[in-house]
Amino acid sequence: MSEILSSAQMRGIEQQAIASGAVAGLELMERAGAGVVAQIATVFPDLPPSTALILCGPGNNGGDGFVIARLLHERGWDIDLHLLGDPARLPPDARSNYQRWAAIGPVTPWNDAKIEDLLDKMASGLVVDALFGTGLTRPMPPETARTWHGFATLLHRAQNARPQVVAVDIPSGLCSDSGRDFEGAFWADLTVSFHRAKWGHYLAPSGPPEGGAARCGLVVTVDIGLPQAPAPGSVQLVERPSSFLGKTMRAHKYGHGHALVLAGGAGKGGAARLAARAALRVGAGLVTVAASQPAIAEHAAQLTAIMLRALPDGYTLRGMLQDERLNALCLGPGLGAARAQDMVPAALWAKRATVLDADALTAFADDPAPYFAQLHDKVVLTPHLGEFRQLFPDLAARLAAPVSRGPAYSKIEAVRAAAARAGCVVLLKGPDTVIADPSGRAALHSATGANAAPWLATAGSGDVLAGLACGLMARGHSAFDAAANAAWLHAAAARAFGPGLIAEDLPEMLPQVFRELGL
Ligand SMILES: NC(=O)C1=CN([C@@H]2O[C@H](COP(=O)(O)OP(=O)(O)OC[C@H]3O[C@@H](n4cnc5c(N)ncnc54)[C@H](O)[C@@H]3O)[C@@H](O)[C@H]2O)[C@@H](O)CC1
Ligand SMILES: [K+]
Where is the YjeF C-terminal domain positioned along the sequence (predicted)? Predict the structure, then answer.
């Protein structure tokens, strides 16, 4: 896991380091520019020096652009630099670098038509977007957005004969906290950020227009010499499973827990069986499906290693849960609303590690307060956006509201607020999956860019995710870790299978994923 920051956290770290005398702002800017130039060489090793069109903005992002111009010039590039705004009003460090660059080469005042014309003719080389970074809190000036829109259209047509686009810190026009497009945001092949990636690089607000991860291309973070101590309240990016997944030689099946997956009525058992299969494959020692009597024959015909019990009602579930070995529960997939209303209170009464998904969420949407009152710290809710909207309509509405000023409300803040209200871990699914607990701890798993797993958008994939989280809790993972690791494994299994994936394939890919993790 690595830390990702909001723009306010990043500003705080920078200001504190400068105020303490540990580092000067000019040094940070120099390292930022040098970091971008180094990454251009690393990511595009076959790109010979030719023309670099450098677009500088009115703040410190533009300041980085002047450093980049100077350093690329030293490496033999022809620089064509355009400044949006008045050089006299640049902040001090940006102005210093403006002056250094102006002693080397020309600074062309921003002219919409001229830039569009240049962009039109560029069939190779580099475009460096140093217009706006973490300081952007409102839509870009209309001419900037328009110029870029025209260029983007041309680039999409050109495909191979086009320059590489490099964003300094973040593609201009994106909100670095929410990943939302203030309007007309740029996009990039490579985004080089400083110290830590920002939330907005990995969040994926869906379109139109798509934001965040969809616009950043490859995201690389470079060290600029700021203190490495984690920021208070920082968010973790889930990159690999965080806790133990292997099994030891000596442990027997009861040492890995016993997951109980509740199923619904006859003909509706597929979802629960998918969850159960995932719980077993992820390493729960035993897994039992508890179904209503009319559904038993159907399950019996389909289950082998997974055990089966008849479970008529919540009263019987309370009795069953006297057995402490049943240490993790999964309720929701295929459960049905009426059965959910009966079973969920019984499951919560037992204070077990519990995943609540699908019907075990939506059956309580009409009156969520008493439901939230029963939730506890071993519970994980796994809504998709539609289910989240039913349980937390005000938070979902804030997320969907049109954005005119920043920092815009982000999925991270929404899930944190939901977890605080529900009093348990909440995992909000999507290409960007956010996990938070009531204390404000939060993690983001981004299945975007090179991590994209588009085939996960298939029936039953959410049931598998719920089963994975349940199985991991049966094995002793905390609710938060189970949720984060389940999100990672789920996407890794999908990527390992590739195109054509259906939900049944996901659990079957886990052995390969585990082998690749070295288990
Ligand atoms: N935070 C740090 O530690 C570092 C920051 N650096 C750079 O500094 C950037 C942040 O710089 P700033 O805070 O100066 O902000 P930005 O350069 O991101 O942009 C904000 C500037 O644009 C103006 N502006 C915002 N919206 C506008 C609009 N719609 N029309 C016209 N002008 C508008 C603002 O008044 C402000 O001057 C980072 O993204 C990064 O590139 C680097 O130099 C390295 C160190
Ligand atoms: K930028």
Answer: 236-517
